């Protein structure tokens, strides 16, 4: 099951629902602290998540401790029901722990209001979904512009368009800005989704089974793209995957089982870097 599936399309619907609060510029400044160089970007301490009460209670996470430093590429793995999906929802500010602490840049996220978590999510996090979650009748460029509009900042439409075009260029889709998802291959649609995730220049990209709907070649291209964004742009990447071949692109693998972290170690099977994706073929001119 998709790690972020309970919120799909979380990066769009949740942001849209929270959009009225985006006009409060003081909210972000008062929410997230300036990170110290000796502190992890993300820290979980004793994080527990329970659903239900009494004998019907389900312990989805049981006293999780996890540190993630800025610039890491971490694969999160585990069988269905292991807790990895719940952990990703908490890390993405889409859910809150029942107990424990979640610190992002030194700020206690578990103590933030819903509006503050939404503001943090829009400013610092980008999401990539297995199913792409693109608006079908909207061009690639307009899809990529959406997070900028949801942030409610004063950037002009021209500035938003320029930022979207730059993001599309960075994922190899220069020249495809005005094509709708129906005119793109699955691999190209996922590139658009990645451009949408990075257009706001987030600190963290959370990728939920990003290659689950792609063939082997397109999967490898997407993984090289994510690794390139991590290495060349310093974006922290947290990726849920069931596929060992895809996890092999991450430098660290965290495995969940029965609501606990079973193992957390450097990846011994790291795939050697390859040249970053070639630009996509230019669209035909009619």
Protein architecture, described:
The protein has 286 residues and is an alpha/beta fold. It has helices at residues 10-18, 25-31, 84-91, 114-124, 140-150, 157-170, 186-198, 216-233, 244-247, and strands at residues 42-51, 58-68, 73-77, 99-104, 107-108, 125-128, 204-208, 236-240, 252-257, 260-266. It has a single domain (5-38, 70-94, 115-266), classed as P-loop containing nucleotide triphosphate hydrolases (Rossmann fold, 3-Layer(aba) Sandwich). The protein contains nine helices and ten strands. β1 (42-51) and β2 (58-68) form a beta hairpin. α5 crosses α6, α5 (140-150) packs parallel to α7 and α7 runs parallel beside α8 (216-233). Residues 5-27 have low confidence and may be disordered.
Residue windows where pLDDT falls under 50 for at least 5 positions? 5-27
Quote the CATH topology. Rossmann fold
Query: Can you tell me the CATH architecture?
Result: 3-Layer(aba) Sandwich
Q: Order of strands across the biggest sheet?
A: 6-7-8-3-9-10
**How many individual β-strands?**
10
Radius of gyration: 18 Å
- Kindly give the count of domains: 1
The amount of helix comes to: 25-40%
> What would the average pLDDT be, to the nearest integer?
85
SS-derived structural category: alpha/beta
């Amino acid at each position: 099951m998709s790690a972020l599936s309970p919120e799909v399309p979380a990066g769009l619907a949740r942001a849209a629902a929270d959009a009225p609060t985006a006009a409060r510029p003081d909210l972000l400044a008062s929410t997230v602290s300036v990170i110290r160089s000796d502190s992890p970007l993300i820290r979980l301490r004793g994080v527990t998540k329970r659903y239900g009460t009494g004998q019907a209670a389900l312990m989805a996470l049981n006293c999780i401790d996890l540190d993630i430093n800025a610039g890491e590429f971490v694969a999160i793995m585990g069988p269905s029901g292991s807790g990895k999906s719940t952990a990703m929802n908490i890390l993405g500010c889409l859910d809150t722990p029942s107990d424990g602490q979640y610190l992002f840049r030194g700020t206690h996220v578990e103590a933030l209001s819903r509006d503050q978590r939404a503001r943090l999510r829009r400013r610092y996090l980008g999401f990539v979904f297995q199913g792409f979650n693109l608006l079908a009748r909207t061009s690639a460029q307009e899809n990529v512009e959406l997070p900028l509009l949801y942030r409610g900042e004063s950037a002009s439409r021209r500035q938003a368009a320029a930022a979207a075009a730059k993001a599309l260029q960075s994922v190899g889709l220069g020249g495809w800005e005005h094509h709708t998802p129906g005119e793109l291959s699955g691999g190209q649609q996922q590139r658009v989704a990645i451009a949408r995730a990075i257009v706001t220049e987030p600190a963290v990209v959370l990728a939920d089974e990003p290659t689950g709907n792609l063939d082997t070649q397109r999967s490898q291209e997407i993984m090289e793209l994510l690794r390139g964004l991590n290495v060349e742009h310093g974006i922290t990447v947290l990726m849920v995957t069931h596929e060992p071949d895809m996890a092999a692109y991450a430098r660290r693998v965290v495995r969940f089982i029965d609501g606990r972290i079973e193992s957390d170690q450097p990846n011994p099977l790291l795939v050697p870097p390859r040249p970053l994706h070639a630009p996509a073929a230019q669209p035909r001119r009619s």
